[in-house]
Amino acid sequence: MAMSAAIHGSATFLYVFAFLVANVGGRHHRSRYACSPFSCGGLRNASHPFRQQGDPAGCGVLSYELTCRDTKATIHINTGTYYVVEINYTASSFWVVDANLNMHSSCPYSRWDQFPQVYGQKEGDTISLAPSDQVTWASLLNCSQAVWNNGRYKPVACLSTSNSFVYVVTSKHPFYVGDLEASCGRFAMVPLGGGWGKTVPENASFEDVVRFMRNGFAVRFPYPYAMPKLTTREISFAELYRIFREDPNIFHRVWYLLMVDSYVWNGMLGLSKGITLSLWIAKLIAGTSPLYIR
Ligand SMILES: *[C@@H]1O[C@H](CO)[C@@H](O)[C@H](O)[C@H]1NC(C)=O
Ligand SMILES: *[C@@H]1O[C@H](CO)[C@@H](O)[C@H](O)[C@H]1NC(C)=O
Ligand SMILES: *[C@@H]1O[C@H](CO)[C@@H](O)[C@H](O)[C@H]1NC(C)=O
Ligand SMILES: *[C@@H]1O[C@H](CO)[C@@H](O)[C@H](O)[C@H]1NC(C)=O
């Protein structure tokens, strides 16, 4: 028992220690060079991070490889295929529309299983293909009983049957579905809008959701994977708490708790980084030593 507790304690310590070392060492970005600008489908002058099939290895970012056909440039994001309709290098993001969407249907989806990863994919020290953090998420819910008393649940008549009731809920928070009604399960999530000034309101009807789906959503260029920097006050306490609550990863949550200490000691009390680090280590030893004494 004591043994496993000790191992667990030292594993936590090693994790934090590794993190500190990694941070002290600075972040190394693999040097990737820009491919020469190219035209692809209707896009002119596509450049880094985009690349096209057959480009030399090391140019552009592999997950941003475009397939160019006639008038369309397509990209794969998680399980889906999307048309790239616009690139905004100033905003470091681009605009995509689901390639399997039936543009003429008022109930357009054939592939509800197609969706991007909510937080993008981690590749080395960067996050790739993350939907813009400004997107609004439409969650589709399938309920075995009708829901009458929840204004945020907008009925989707065309997908409902006599014994299954389908609703859409839109929210800025990807996993928020109001108070999930007991008889409901989520079966799809669709990102909407999110690019330069084109945000989609919450509480949208299904007709609005379909309209916004045809316009697509914004996806970010690769960006460095980093925990929020509290000491420089880049992030408010409330925001940190929100991230903490929503992050399912236990190691991240431990790290956020340490960040709260740093926020108070370094950010609010103005202690130096060195003292903050010493306090951390003292706290860590105090927190894990009972595990060794036992
Ligand atoms: C192509 O894009 C680059 C930057 O990505 C820009 O500097 C250049 O002016 C653009 N050329 C044209 C013809 O749009
Ligand atoms: C690109 O994004 C910036 C803001 O990030 C915005 O001001 C600008 O209008 C966008 N460009 C286009 C062509 O939409
Ligand atoms: C909703 O659930 C019912 C019962 O499980 C199923 O028959 C129906 O196909 C589902 N509807 C959708 C749109 O997934
Ligand atoms: C959402 O819309 C419904 C009716 O359309 C309304 O009753 C409800 O108050 C709205 N909720 C929010 C949070 O705007």
TrEMBL record:
Main location: membrane
GO cellular component, one term: membrane
Membrane topology category: Single-pass membrane protein
Localization (cell): Membrane
UniProt keyword annotations, A-Z: Signal
Keyword Signal: yes
Protein name (record): Wall-associated receptor kinase galacturonan-binding domain-containing protein
Organism: Digitaria exilis
